Amino acid sequence: MTAVIKLWKNLRAGAAFERCVRPHVPRLHRLAWRLTGSAADADDLLQETLLRAYPKRAEVVDLDAPGPWLARVLHNAWVDRWRRKGVMRHSESLDDPDVEPTEASTSDEPLLVAVETAVLDRAIRALPEHHQVVILMHDGEGYTLQEISRILDVPVGTLKSRLHRAREALRERMRNGTLSSRAAC
Question: What is the DSSP string of 120-136?
Fold first, then answer.
């Protein structure tokens, strides 16, 4: 009889975890895709994130804002993968069929918008990793600086300066069209 009760409690906890996490999955998947640059790698990273979070499901369910906590788990999983592989990003081009198209390129918007989106994506990927992550999280996914501070465990002041420098580097790259070499920021 106790085995049935234990199973029922585990099922209830799993359902509560799913209800808590489900609204954050699209945002986490976009962040994973932006970090990895590949749809398949983003799927794997998201799955790894959820697998890491599931054992702590009771804590996740009790959080007021589980989104930033889950994003931190995702970021840590991404960093762990990077450390294991020894490389931070993949070398897929924007024309790679494995890479998800941007929203602008799949809509009825003019081709110019799609081209500008591709140029901006290349410019962001050319930034140093610490600038790339903060601009993708803040400007791309809408996390506040306070949330990013909790996710990355970096002071808000540091994030403000990184965001400012990243935006300046992007402006400069877009203005000059220099997307081939990494800027020393």
Answer: HHHHHHTS-HHHHHHHI
Distance, in Å, from the CA atom of 94 to the CA atom of 91, rounded to the nearest integer, reads 10
156: tokens are 């808000």
Q: Where are the alpha helices (DSSP H) in 86-155?
A: 103-106, 111-125, 129-135, 145-152
C-beta separation of 13 from 57 below 8 A: yes
Distance of CA 161 to the CA centre of its chain: 20
State the amino acid at position 150 in one-letter form. Answer: R
* Under 8 Å between Cβ of 146 and 160: no
- Give residues with Cβ within 8 angstroms of 42, minimum separation 6: 29, 32, 33, 35, 36, 100
Q: What is the pLDDT along the chain (185 residues), one digit of tens a residue?
A: 566 555 455 556 678 888 888 999 999 999 999 888 888 999 999 999 999 998 888 888 888 888 888 999 999 898 888 777 764 444 333 334 344 444 433 444 454 555 567 777 788 888 898 999 999 899 888 899 999 999 999 999 999 999 999 999 988 887 876 554 444 44
Q: Is 109 left (phi over 0), alpha (psi -120 to 50) or beta?
A: beta
> What domains does the chain contain, in order, with CATH numbers?
1-92 (1.10.1740), 101-185 (1.10.10.10)
Token readout for 123 is 């410019």
